[in-house]
Amino acid sequence: MISKQQISEIISKYDQENLAIATVCSHSSLQIFDGARKEGLKTIGICVGQPPRFYDAFPKAKPDEYIVVESYSDIPKITQELVEKNAIIIPHGSFVEYMGAKNFAELPVPTFGNREVLEWESDREKEREWLEGAGIHMPGNVPDPKDINSPVMVKYYGAKGGRGFFIAKTYEEFLENIDPNEKFTIQEFILGTRYYLHYFYSPLENEGYKLSEGTLEMLSMDRRVESNADEIFRLGSPRELEEAGIHPTYVVTGNVPLVARESLLPLIFSLGEKVVEESIKLFGGMVGPFCLETVFTDKLEIKVFEISARIVAGTNFYISGSPYADLVESDLSTGKRIAKEIKLAKDMGQLDKILS
Fold first, then answer.
1. pTM of the prediction?
2. 228 assigned ligand-binding residue
3. Which of 147, 247, 249, 273 has its CA 20 to 30 A from that of 5?
4. What's the CA gap between 78 and 70, in Å, rounded?
5. Residue 103, annotated ligand binder?
């Protein structure tokens, strides 16, 4: 992984009055570019192939300029060009997944957030160590697939947009569906409603929901629309579907907004707080947006089954704010919040604190 000292040296040569926000044209880039423009920052879209035409339909979110590469593996070839443009990379799920966590970690361009989190987030075992070390309730782990005796969720490593997840109730079902070439983890299946909780941690702010250092914000919530899991049971009962050889899949096709019972907010903030404080102990703390992927049970318990330590696509419909973000600041999206943090760090002379 590129060192913090190397990144600091690059930042020291930047024209900080002309910073630019750069990300890959995918995932949550519309919101990232829109938020940067609202805060007066230049924007650079990194395109694989050619600039997507749909940006022409959204002029407020269209990047100021594009840099075109043939594939994600070619992104390291444009690092000098990005540095010359005073670029700060904003990571998102597609960017990191398709480029590869190891390659992304070595990218010699200042990046928003702490890259140390990649090691803890992309490895399911280390992720569990982090979350359980924070005192978070997670679904039980099943180390040996031969021990499957009730419904479990089998997950492959990395951010794949829900692709490849499957439910198994027996060892035989596990063998029928598993890809032996993929690294996986097995969790007990928790019955409840899925809530994706979108937080923002600032190590710079000193007003708000205070932590040992900085503050925590809770900007929005959503749940995912998954194909074909959300519609499949219109075709019959689970047994009938199974007999017909039809199995649910969990590929994310969209998101819908949610608001939680207000009485759950203390617990929701407590979860975010514990995760941030443990990250500070383990690797110096994550910075900026993160998402806890949870299940709310009918006993009003919250089980956390995964963390995404960057902006996630579930924030996309909150470009003009959410029922929660609007109580922080009107018209506040996660993309805009990222841009505001970068500007605050620049004004405080502390870009080193939020970039790596």
1. 0.90
2. no
3. 273
4. 11
5. no
CA–CA distances in Å: residue 352 to residues 48, 203, 247, 266, 355: 29, 11, 48, 32, 5
Residue 205 annotated as lining a ligand binding site: no
Sheet with 184-188, strands from edge to edge, namely 166-168, 152-156, 184-188
CATH of region 4-135+192-224+258-354: 3.30.470.20
Among residues 202, 230, 13, which one has the least CA distance to residue 113?
Answer: 202
The answer to whether the annotation marks 255 as part of a ligand binding site is yes
- What single letter denotes the amino acid at residue 35? G
User: What pLDDT shows up at residue 123?
Assistant: 86
In the chain, CATH 3.30.470.20 sits at 4-135+192-224+258-354
Q: What are the mean pLDDT values of the chain's consecutive 10-residue runs (356 residues total)?
A: 94 96 96 98 95 96 97 95 98 89 93 95 90 94 89 76 72 86 86 95 97 98 81 60 68 91 98 98 97 95 94 95 96 98 98 96
